[in-house]
Amino acid sequence: MNIITAKGLNLHYGSFHALKNIDVDIPEKEITALIGPSGCGKSTFLKTLNRMNDMVQGVKITGEVIYHGEDIYANGMDVTVLRKNIGMVFQKPNPFPMSIYDNIAYGPRLHGNYKKSELNDLVERSLRGAAVWGEVKDRLKKSAMGLSGGQQQRLCIARALSVEPDVLLMDEPTSALDPASTMKIEELMSELKKNYTVVIVTHNMQQAARISDKTAFFLVGEMVEVGDTDDVFSMPKDKRTEDYITGRFG
């Protein structure tokens, strides 16, 4: 079952053609990895899935991104609701300069009316969901800025989970982290896919091979190849994919 489908998706920044005719299905409750060299369009594509590119001046998008049967670029799409349902975690942890509790409660307070007890449960559930509850439960009122980088990133994942999305977009979520924190986030992603669809941009091909079910290879704005991760890595159909995976360029 596919949760998101891109059809004939093109994106221009001014005269620069950044995404060229992308067609791809993103299966529900699986991890889809987007790989490719720097500047190939993978992060740009990721951001089209919850309209983060809307904020860039001079951007022009054509084609469709179908989510639950609706084109997210159609007139009348509520972008706030869309971004609640399709959450985003960035490369660099970006906790708000407030308490750990308030970081998680921020989104739910914005989107709904919760009693204090409901909010407490939601904060705990989100932090548990991001595998960081045990480390922060005794310091919820302390500033999130005092956490380590790996903890901050898991806090940002918990913050994304707190508004109960069904898709989580992750833009190189471990590239700023040490190996131990990276391992924790990878283990967490494998847990998350039981309840969420995860789309991750990664520079780390070993990471894509380890954690993803499906891999898409991007090169200069084109999606060269997409398929089951095992197939893409062991039997790539396109010579360019093979050259990238075997380290001939990139």
Overview of the structural elements:
By secondary structure, the chain is of the alpha/beta class. It has a single domain (2-245), classed as Rossmann fold, CATH 3.40.50.300. The protein is built from ten helices and ten strands. It has helices spanning 42-48, 79-85, 100-111, 116-129, 133-136, 149-161, 179-192, 205-211, 229-234, 239-245; strands at 2-13, 16-27, 31-35, 59-67, 70-71, 86-89, 167-171, 197-201, 214-219, 222-228. A hairpin with a 2-residue loop joins β1 (2-13) and β2. α6 (149-161) runs parallel beside α7 (179-192). The mean pLDDT is 95.
Task: Give short descriptive properties of this protein.
250 residues, alpha/beta, Rossmann fold, six-stranded mixed β-sheet, four-stranded antiparallel β-sheet, 10 helices
